[in-house]
Amino acid sequence: MRSERYIPYVLILPSVLFLLFLFAWPLLEALLLSVRGSGGQWTLENFQRMAADLYFKDALKYTLLLTVVIVPLQVVMALGMAMLLGGISRGRDLFLYVWTIPLGISDLAAGIVWLAIFTERGYLNSFLQGIGVIQQPQLWLSYETPTMIFVAVVAAEVWRATAIVFVILVAGLQLIPKEYSEAAEVFGATPWQRFWKVTLPLLMPSLQVALILRTILALEVFAVVVALGGRNLPVLAGEAYYWYNAYQNPGVAAAYSVIILGISVVATMLYLRLMRSKREGAA
Amino acid sequence: MNLRVLYMLLAGVLVVWVLLPIFLIATLAFSDRSSVFAWPKGLLPQQFSLETIAFFFGVEGVWKAIRNSLTVAAMTLVFSVLLGAPAGYALARYRFAGADAYRLLILMTRAFPLAILAIPLAVQFIQLGIYDTAFGVALVHTALALPFAVLVTSSLFLGIPKELEEAAWTLGCDRIQAFLRVVLPLALPGLAATAIFAFVISWNEVFAATLLTLRERTLPAFLLTSLNDSPLPFRFAGGFFLIVPALIFIFIIRRYLFTLWGIANR
């Protein structure tokens, strides 16, 4: 059976090579591209141009703001949905299916769907007119109303991507043995205490996965914003796109991508560090 | 109030929250031009019409974009299963030095915003001659879908008893025959779910597809780049059309959703 030892390596080799080519290499390439000038010399010119750009500060601000608003909203809502599901006996499968439908919906499609609601002659204005709040259609998605564009993006993202957090949390809940909660009940813990002292600590690994995944996706938010506000609400990934496509400047685009990568790595490390102690405490 | 009634009420509100926007965009997609611009709009469609949808499919480039999207998604599906399933099988069946390092590599790809890497890749793809091709986009989409394919297929193969395979060997099958005749049929539904999931990931991806193409746009890339100079009916019909296949696919793989994510957890 000596000859069998190489088999697993043969089996994983193609995927390793593939990931080296499409993950490790471009990662390195993005760094190089951002610190090289047009002549190939080392320079910080790309970062300076990026930082001096009018849109940069707003893009950074809005990307971070969107992330810190959207991700907690989604986690709280998904947690509530997961708990709610536990309290439902009839029609559980149906609720499960409907609530996870947004999983299949892309960010661009979600942006367009919410455009239909927030646009000038859209459903929101029709509703407001119907209850007598406004007489004329209001313009919500113009450059003069960045706050409303922000709200629309948050609505679209919460609508679309809460499902993924929900699925991760429900899958995590299924791994927790019922005995723990039952034991706590025997000792007189209220449902509220059982949630905070038993379920939530045991759910930490799933919460961590969900937080990391959603934060990274939120940091590269792009199509939703473009569909709803164009460049009126600048975000980092959008700027990377404009610098690459419209300005034909891969160097500055790469600088933006390095910023996004950097923030993502820092966020991931923070989650891993902050949530580790709790997880070990629970285990 | 009865607690159970309250739960059902909340659950119902959430159902409306998910379905109402889809209903609204469908209403717009299946109405005529004047209803799309009507003010104020009622919740219910004024009159059923194929005008908007027909207009959308009549725009030059839409059919080509749909064809490109299907090509890219099909390639992504094939690549992710072909690359991911063997690795998943190796993780499930063998204990080997480096297995943990490999798992870490797979998990690490999920800690990075992969689509952003389309920027350096676009520069490289131009030199390699695969810029603006379905193949190039499919490569990036495969990178997005591969981690899922590996983790899901690994859990899939773990669920198939090794004894079945060993029994096949004693009956005279070699390793490959045993895999094809015994393991593969059992793994097929799960593999299909994995494949569909890879397809949906590709069908929905916008950023990389837009950066890596110029003329050979996928549907999301085509829609995104024409957003600014296209009328609202076009956008609504396009948005609706993007959602439809995803809805069908999620319905088909709904039983596997939690396996997909439950396993990716560990």
Structure keywords:
heterodimer; A: 283 residues; mainly alpha; MetI-like fold; 0% strand; B: 266 residues; globular
Report what the structure shows.
- The complex is a heterodimer of chains A (283) and B (266).
- Residues 278-283 of chain A have low confidence and may be disordered.
- Chain A has a single domain (43-282), classed as MetI-like fold (Orthogonal Bundle), CATH 1.10.3720.
- Chain A is mostly helical.
- Chain A has 13 helices and no strands.
- With 266 residues, chain B is mostly helical.
- Chain B folds into 2 domains: 1-49, no CATH class; 60-160 and 194-264, MetI-like fold (Orthogonal Bundle), CATH 1.10.3720.10.
- Chain B is 75% helix and 0% strand.
- Chain B contains 13 helices and no strands.
- Chain B has helices at residues 3-29, 33-36, 51-58, 62-93, 99-109, 118-128, 134-158, 162-170, 175-204, 207-211, 219-225, 232-253, 257-264.
- Chain B is globular.
- Chain B starts with a helix and ends with a helix.
- The model of chain B has no long low-confidence stretch (mean pLDDT 89).
- Classes of the chains: A mainly alpha (283), B mainly alpha (266).
> What is the number of domains of chain B?
2
Low-confidence stretches of chain B: none
Return the string of H and E elements of chain B: HHHHHHHHHHHHH
What is the percentage of strand-forming residues of chain A?
A: under 5%
> How many separate helices of chain B?
13
Classify the secondary structure makeup of chain B into a structural class.
mainly alpha
Total tally of structural domains of chain A: 1
Largest interface: A-B, 95 and 93 residues
Spatial separation of the terminal alpha carbons of chain A: 39 Å
Name the poorly predicted regions of chain A: 278-283
Question: What CATH architecture label of chain A applies?
Answer: Orthogonal Bundle
Largest sheet of chain B: none
Termini Cα gap of chain B: 40 Å
Give the rounded overall mean pLDDT of chain B. Answer: 89
**N-to-C SSE string of chain A, H for helix and E for strand:** HHHHHHHHHHHHH
Shape of chain B: globular
The CATH homologous superfamily of the largest domain in chain B is named MetI-like
What structural class do helix, strand and pairing data of chain A support? mainly alpha
In which range does the helix fraction of chain A lie? over 70%
User: What radius of gyration of chain A results from the CA coordinates?
Assistant: 23 Å
